[in-house]
Design brief:
The structure holds 2 protein chains of 2 kinds. By secondary structure, chain A is an alpha/beta fold. Chain A is 34% helix and 15% strand. Chain A is built from 8 helices and 10 strands. Chain A has a 5-stranded parallel sheet with strand order 5-4-3-10-9. A 3-stranded parallel sheet of chain A has the order 6-7-8. A two-stranded antiparallel sheet of chain A has the order 1-2. In chain A, strand 3 (16-19), helix 1 and strand 4 (40-47) form a beta-alpha-beta unit. In chain A, helix 3 (111-123) packs parallel to helix 4 and helix 6 (189-197) runs parallel beside helix 8. The radius of gyration of chain A is 20 Å and the shape is globular. Chain A starts with 5 loop residues before the first strand and ends in a 21-residue tail after the last helix. Chain B is mainly beta. Chain B has one helix spanning 23-29; strands at 5-10, 13-18, 38-41, 44-45, 61-69. In chain B, a hairpin with a 2-residue loop joins strand 3 and strand 4. The radius of gyration of chain B is 13 Å and the shape is globular. Chain B starts with a strand and ends with a strand. The chains are: A alpha/beta, B mainly beta. The interface between A and B is medium-sized, with 36 and 21 residues. Strand 4 of chain A pairs antiparallel with strand 5 of chain B.
Chain lengths: 256, 71
């Protein structure tokens, strides 16, 4: 079955996007990307610390990956736009994950500022993937503003709690004519499968892989889980029934 | 000869440098591998081609950024 996944005019070879934060060592990131088979990889932009000699993250990311810098650290639309423009100036393409957060406890995104930033950046030629709280009206406005996908959270960033927003994400999948990518909060491969089975276009996973005991193996597990979930979605799950329904014929028993 | 000092802000910290100094000389002074960084000069992105010809002035604001891990 042909199942192309295209965002911003690019055909993506994987529906698992991965983040590069929190790994015990950045040196394992090439193996993590390989074992996950991810095509889109997120990074962040920060001031250089002149006192530390840590290596540049770009050295660890294979050239055939699509780099999706995020605007983490932005507290409003203008800051997100500034970060996006700096990232693009670095010559790593025009994809941007908008992340506008002013709440430090739950790290919940500010949908209002995110919509403003999406509009400005989409007009400026960016492929914009906004991280958002799963709200239908906000998702509609993001689409109108020129977003290439919407990325609702499954649970607060870094919590590994799973798809706690399931009902709301399902509404976005049903109602929004854009890829819905579940970003943040997924803690286990089964939760990635759950998101994909209900029709998410992709998932973005970072903490669950980076903080596992074996990130390279966990990255592979997430890759497989996403493939399984997508296949199940395309196959159309059978109906749920209230009472038992025999799988074997109920006639022709021996000795009857 | 009197050494003249410039006051600039680099990545949010005030510092003094001897003038004249170009942007690329400032990066070298701080030991930065320049092919891996992005420079914002007085709140505008400074393209690489202009690093050599940009001579810093008093009260300039320079941000040197790079990509790090993130989700």
């Amino acid at each position: 079955m042909e199942d192309k996944f295209i965002i911003g005019g690019k055909e993506l070879s994987s529906r698992l996007f991965i983040g590069t934060g929190k790994f015990p060592s950045n040196r394992i990131i090439p193996q993590v990307i390989k074992s996950s088979a991810a095509h889109v990889v997120t990074v962040a932009l920060r001031r250089i610390d002149f006192d530390s000699k840590e290596e540049n993250m770009l050295n660890h990311i294979p050239k055939d990956c699509i780099l999706m810098p995020n605007t983490s650290g932005a507290r409003n639309a203008d800051e997100a736009v500034r970060i996006a423009k700096i990232a693009r100036a670095a010559g790593c393409g025009n994809w941007i994950k908008i992340e506008v957060i002013s709440d430090n406890k739950y790290l919940l995104p500010d949908n209002f500022e995110t919509i403003k930033a999406t509009e400005m950046l989409a007009k400026d030629g960016f492929v914009v993937l906004p991280y958002m709280s799963p709200d239908l009206m906000a998702a509609k406005r993001l689409k109108d503003a020129g977003a290439s996908a919407v990325m609702p959270l499954g649970a607060p960033i870094g919590t590994n709690k799973g798809l706690k927003t399931k009902e709301l994400v399902k509404i976005l999948i049903d109602e929004i004519d854009l890829p819905v990518i579940v970003d943040a909060g997924l803690g286990r491969p089964s939760e990635a499968t759950e998101a994909m089975e209900m029709g998410a276009a992709a998932v973005l996973v970072n903490t669950a892989i980076a903080t596992s005991d074996d990130p390279i193996s966990m990255a592979e597990a997430f890759g497989l889980a996403v493939i399984a979930g997508r296949k199940a979605y395309l196959s159309g799950a059978g109906a749920v029934k209230e009472f038992a329904e025999a799988s074997s014929p109920l006639t022709g028993f021996l000795g009857a | 000869m009197v050494v003249r000092l410039l006051n600039i802000t680099l990545n949010g910290k005030k510092m003094e440098v001897e003038k004249p100094i170009t942007l690329i000389e400032l990066l070298e002074l701080k030991g930065i591998e320049h092919e891996k960084v992005i420079v914002e000069y007085n709140y505008d992105i400074l393209v690489r081609d202009d690093w050599n010809s940009t001579i810093l002035d008093d009260n300039d604001n320079v941000e040197v950024l790079k990509f790090v891990g993130g989700g």
